[in-house]
Design goal:
Layout lengths: L1 E6 L6 H13 L4 E8 L4 H4 L6 E8 L6 H14 L3 E4 L15 E5 L14 E4 L2 H10 L6 E2 L20 E6 L4 H4 L1 H14 L5 E6 L5 H11 L5 E5 L3 H7 L5 E4 L8 H9 L3 E4 L2 H6 L7 E3 L4 H13 L4 H17 L2 H13 L14
Parallel strand pairs: 1-2, 1-4, 2-3, 4-5, 5-6, 6-7, 8-9, 8-11, 9-10, 11-12, 12-13
């Protein structure tokens, strides 16, 4: 089968990382092309593609309405001659009319633009929460849930628990309106008052428009010595060092999935998430992680304090190890990639034997 994955840009982010991992997995049993429409590409991400994956860079200026770029996109796709085109943004619906290959869409987040779903032969949702969001807005839609996956072979597992200082990490774009990093800062300030004898630190991994605001807030709260902003980090580095943390906190106000949550779970690191549907689904509604009331920094601080006090508890440590096994079984990237491939095959695609790889 000849598969094209189509995306506007490749920057460091959850959906982009997922695309790379899926393409690499599928390239072991199919011909895989990745077409990047815009001139927004991070070399750190493109270097992660397997040599079996063919990449095409169309270098359209973001937001350009020049019709030449549409013609170039259609020409490129026709030249590849795909059996299936898997798009990762809804706006590619505009080119479906010009192509004979079926087009499938993955919806990666909540409150996405769901227009023109009828243009797609299949619509996938990365979680049940996203599926429900789609159906609420488009009752006739029939999205298929395929959970995001992680290449856990690259994620170092945590062995030791209960060490000090107690180190917290938050991974994601610094965009507090959605990701809620300010909630964690306020919780840390509260925690310093509640547990003055405990040394608790927070690292923020990521970049974004809220960086200055969050730094100013940390200064205002008097907690700058207890938190660091590490900027964007390669995924390989995150996978290597995630196990050195004692807790991952994801205080999102809106989240369709949350790759960082699953990565931490698979590393054996406890996770604390806001009680919105996407992250709650990942932790099996509290069976494999902790949660607090969304936007409530006091409840967040209370839950962190509890986790700190339980960090030496043998039962808690065993539960974290069981959670790691749960995550590695449920969210494995090879299963995710294969699920997508099986759904492609259901679209009545006629594939010549020469286009199949055996691996």
């Amino acid at each position: 089968m000849r598969i094209v994955h189509l995306i506007w840009g490749l920057n460091v982010g959850g959906s982009e990382t997922l695309l790379v991992d899926i393409a690499n997995e599928q390239s072991s049993y199919a011909e895989v092309f990745v077409v990047i429409g815009n001139d927004t590409v991070d070399q750190v991400v493109t270097d992660l593609f397997s040599r079996r994956v063919t990449t095409r860079f169309l270098r359209r200026p973001p937001g350009s309405w020049n019709p030449w770029h549409l013609v170039n996109l259609v020409h490129t796709l026709r030249g590849i001659g795909p059996d299936i085109i898997h798009v990762h943004q809804n706006s590619f619906a505009a080119v479906a009319h010009f192509l004979s290959a079926p087009m499938a869409l993955t919806v990666h987040g909540m409150n996405d633009d769901f227009q023109h779903l009828e243009k797609f032969a299949a619509v996938f949702a990365v979680s049940e929460a996203v599926r429900q969001d789609i159906v609420t807005k488009h009752p006739r839609a029939t999205p298929i849930v395929i959970h995001n996956g992680i290449n856990f072979a690259k994620v170092t597992r945590k062995i030791h628990y209960g060490r000090e200082p107690f180190r917290i990490v938050q991974v994601g774009r610094l965009y507090h309106e959605t990701k809620g990093q300010h909630i964690l800062l306020k919780a840390l300030h509260r925690l310093k008052r509640e547990l003055p004898d405990k040394h608790v630190e927070v690292d923020f991994v990521g970049e974004g428009t809220s960086h200055e605001y969050l730094c100013d807030l940390a200064k205002e709260l008097g907690i700058t010595e207890s938190c660091r902003f590490l900027g964007q980090q390669p995924r390989s580095r995150i996978y290597e060092y995630l196990h050195t943390y004692d807790l991952l906190v994801q205080p999102s106000r809106s989240e369709g999935f949350g790759l960082a949550v699953v990565e931490a779970m698979g590393a054996g690191v406890p996770v604390l998430v806001s009680d919105i549907e996407g992250p709650m689904e990942l932790i099996d509604y509290g069976n494999n992680g902790y949660y607090f009331r969304t936007e409530d920094h006091l409840d967040c601080a209370e839950k962190i304090a509890r986790i700190v006090m339980e960090s030496h508890d043998k039962k808690s440590c065993e539960q974290h190890r069981r959670t790691a096994e749960y995550a590695r079984e449920r969210f494995d990237i090879s299963a995710t990639a294969r699920r997508y491939f099986e759904e492609y095959q259901k679209l009545n695609i006629e594939v010549t034997p020469a286009r199949m790889r055996h691996g």
